[in-house]
């Protein structure tokens, strides 16, 4: 997620923390102790480079390798964004009814006890089903 935010525009670590807090609707802000080591790792992997500005502040920008990584992991990034949006809505206070809680556990069990192996095609089929259901649920009631 940090890498995708840096792709949008060059940012300082503090700006990244604030942007994530905004995307979570103010209900969560990552700690500097998790963001700055991740930025260091991204730099070591060659996904970002930084320059020093305003004293010791570092400005991060994405590299071609970082862009390539984002393209290769686009499905994962989209999934993370959807979960963040759901978390922001959940933090607003409304929790699902108990019946839905049980249904979530049933889905988890179905995934854990899936028979027949997880071929690439089967993985993609199940991923599409789950992502589609999540999208329909997050959109709310149909306009019947």
UniProtKB/TrEMBL annotation:
SUPFAM superfamilies attached to this UniProt entry: Winged helix' DNA-binding domain
Chain ranges of the Transcription regulator PadR N-terminal domain: 2-72
Domain of life: Bacteria
Name recorded for this polypeptide: PadR family transcriptional regulator
Source organism phylogeny: Bacteria, Pseudomonadati, Pseudomonadota, Gammaproteobacteria, Steroidobacterales
């Amino acid at each position: 997620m940090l890498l995708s935010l840096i792709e949008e525009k060059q940012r300082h670590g503090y700006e990244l923390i604030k942007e994530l807090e905004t995307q979570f609707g103010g209900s969560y802000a990552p700690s500097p102790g998790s963001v700055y080591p991740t930025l260091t790792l991204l730099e070591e992997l060659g996904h970002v480079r930084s320059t020093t500005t305003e004293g010791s502040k570092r400005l991060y920008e994405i590299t071609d390798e970082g862009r390539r990584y984002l393209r290769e992991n686009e499905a994962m990034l989209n999934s993370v964004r959807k979960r963040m949006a759901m978390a922001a809505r959940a933090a607003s206070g409304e929790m699902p009814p108990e019946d839905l809680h049980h249904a979530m556990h049933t889905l988890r069990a179905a995934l854990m006890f899936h028979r027949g192996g997880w071929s690439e095609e089967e993985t993609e089929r199940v991923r599409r089903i789950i992502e589609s259901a999540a999208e329909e649920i997050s959109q709310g009631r149909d306009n019947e």
